[in-house]
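Recall the central idea of this unit: under ordinary conditions, the amino acid sequence of a chain determines the structure it adopts. In this exercise we apply that idea directly, starting from the sequence alone.
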Amino acid sequence: MLPTPTLGAAIIVKNAESSIILALDSLYEFVQQIVVVDTGSTDQTPQICSRYGTELHFHKWTDNFSEARNYALERMRTDWIIQLDADEELDRKSLENISQLLNTPSIAGLHSQILNVLDGGIESEHLYTRIFRRHPKIRYEGAIHEQIAGSIREAGFEIMDSPVVIRHFGYAEHSPEKIVRNTTLLRKELADNPDDKWLSYHLGLTEFAAGNRSEAKSTLEPIVNSQELSIEQRETVRLRLAQIALESEKSDIVKKWLDFRSADVHREGLRLFILGAAYAIQKDFHKAIFCFTQEATSNSRLVNQLELQSFIDGISSFLNQS
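Accordingly, the structure predicted from this sequence is:
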């Protein structure tokens, strides 16, 4: 029987006293090493991390996430590393069946399912390489929305999907400071790499989250059909552009952006929800109800189900009185 590879966690933090306990609880006495790199906390974050017995290091913040993450990687000693953020929680049970993947020599990265918990009980998900071998050539790249997958492949290894789940709670808390920081870093990096569609995608979504609809629209429109983005990302671009058009009650433009069907039930449900709202604006209530009552709409984690039911009840009541 092959020996069980050791597993450690690397976290970078700053002023995370309100969330770091959840992250550390999900790791405590489960992984063999926890390295925390603090980039300038002024709250109780370092003290909390120390109480959990983490290996706490301090590193000056230089507006570069990869630099801070790589500083943490250089202090790891385990065979494999989990990268966790301070506002995330590792689902331990989801790691039960990955021993074969960890013992496969050709594999050095595992895609994890990142489950984003949003306002109103809404959830979204995406895959991201969060578990990887400790290897001198495997390092993060990019000042923001840093990536490690490229270095794994360049080192000659494979990245495989895994059942591992990480829950991310950061989007449920609106942090103006975080949005401004991310927007500034993305704009700076995009100015240096103007043809990088991936950076444009993340800047557009960040502008949207910040409420900068005009900036989001001008950033996302040019990349709506870019083959450099994944299907999930292209559909997300269309959904955000449709939401921007909906806010201006431009129903025909909403329909233009939503002229697709998603194989993902959650994105398809959001598509139908936005489309239904566009029909409601046009007073085409029968089509609106049709969109709102589809199975995908009611099963989508991206749709606020209380808001959906309120729309259905209101329109149904109006139609019954007509």
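The CA atoms of residues 64 and 143 lie 4 Å apart.
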